[in-house]
Write a structure and sequence with these properties.
This protein is 50% helix and 11% strand. The protein has a 7-stranded parallel beta sheet. Strands 2-3 form a two-stranded antiparallel sheet. It has 345 residues and is of the alpha/beta class. The two termini are 20 Å apart. It catalyses: uroporphyrinogen III + 4 H(+) = coproporphyrinogen III + 4 CO2. InterPro entries: UROD/MetE-like_sf (IPR038071), Uroporphyrinogen_deCO2ase_HemE (IPR006361), Uroporphyrinogen_deCOase (IPR000257). Belongs to the uroporphyrinogen decarboxylase family.
Length: 345
């Protein structure tokens, strides 16, 4: 049975434009909160394949999306490379010993050795392949090397990125060495997700906007393109989605290139601009502003506007970033139904 989401990634004819949401398995769902409470904490949930599979499937049953995205976290990669990760209430993820030197980098596991430690992720995917309906796709994912490196260097989330950007300008060689090591782990991680059963993979560059457009290719995009190329060479039947957040200036300057299938458009980038610059080469995904979900009227207005631009061609509906924790579930259901309504062929 064909999967509508996979078909759309390859620009094949579909009965309507498929839809899913970033962070769709999450805190806005009471059912998710129940499982998370049972797990004890967020990392325990990521490390428990049965529970991770359960929360991955919830939005398909409850909200009606066309694809499931694996429940995990981007920071399991540096954690398994050897950096000690904690999720601290009110602060989020923290690495208590951030990377400062080549010597510290050399002490971390790399390549396949690090990727082999993420067995709980692959077990979750295998369970999901047994449980998911045949027509629903499973999206595997990773953080982009730059986004992962920012956490590894800063030690936690940051608004200024001053530690990693100081390294970018004063010790670019070390930053490139970190990015290279992370890239090599990510390649194997993506391959193992695909071997376990992922139908599609997405590379998230959540902190893309922290880099000036003239430096973005050097410190992020080229590494993402390398990962995509590695996947497409070995697994041409697996769609690859790239999602760099906050790169309208990068798109405008015609700097997007690479062998991948779908470009995720963030809410700060006009969909018409993305279509003009990229629509002939890539299927576009996105890009409703997530806070519109607080209003059903504003949701419908935006869904119709995006449909008017894309006309159901080369498009996947999504938010322009993740769904927020206090969005009413009925509003998320409304979004999905509206996307399916306006694009029904």
């Amino acid at each position: 049975m064909s999967k509508i989401f996979v078909d759309a990634c390859f620009r094949k004819e579909t009965p309507y434009t498929p839809v899913w949401m970033m962070r769709q398995a999450g805190r806005y769902l009471p059912e998710y909160m129940e499982v998370r409470a049972k797990a004890g904490n967020f990392l325990n949930l990521c490390h428990n394949p049965e529970m991770a599979a359960e929360v991955t499937i919830q939005p398909l049953d409850i909200v009606g999306v066309d694809a499931a995205i694996l429940f995990s976290d981007i920071l399991v990669i540096p954690n398994e490379m050897g950096m000690h990760l904690e999720f601290i209430k009110g602060e989020g993820p923290v690495f208590k010993d951030p990377l400062k030197s080549q010597e510290e980098l050399d002490n971390l596991l790399g390549g396949e050795e690090a990727a082999n430690k993420l067995t709980y992720v692959y077990e979750t995917i295998k369970l999901l392949k047994q449980q998911l309906p045949e027509d629903k796709a499973l999206i595997g994912f990773t953080g982009a090397p730059w986004t992962l490196a920012t956490y590894m260097i800063e030690g936690q989330g940051t608004k200024t990125y001053n530690v990693c950007k100081k390294m970018m300008y004063s010790n670019p060689e070390l930053l490139h060495n970190i990015l290279r090591k992370v890239t090599d782990v990510v390649k194997f991680y993506m391959e193992k997700q695909i071997q376990a059963g992922a139908d599609v993979v997405q590379i998230f560059d959540s902190w893309a906007a922290a880099i000036e457009p003239g430096k973005y290719d050097e410190f992020s995009w080229k590494y993402m393109v390398e990962i995509a190329e590695f996947i497409k060479e070995k697994y041409p039947h697996i769609p690859v989605i790239m999602f760099p957040k906050g790169v309208a200036a990068f798109i405008e300057r015609g700097l997007v290139y690479g062998n991948f299938d779908v470009f995720g458009v963030d809410w700060g980038t006009p969909m018409a601009l993305a279509k003009e610059k990229l629509g002939d080469r890539y299927v576009l995904q996105g890009n409703m502003e997530p806070t519109r979900l607080y209003s059903k009227e504003r949701t419908t207005e935006c869904v119709e506007a995006i449909q008017n631009i894309m006309q159901g061609e080369g498009h996947i509906f999504n938010l322009g970033h993740g769904i927020l924790p206090d969005v009413p579930v009925e509003n998320a259901i409304h979004f999905v139904k509206e996307c399916q309504r306006v694009s029904k062929k």
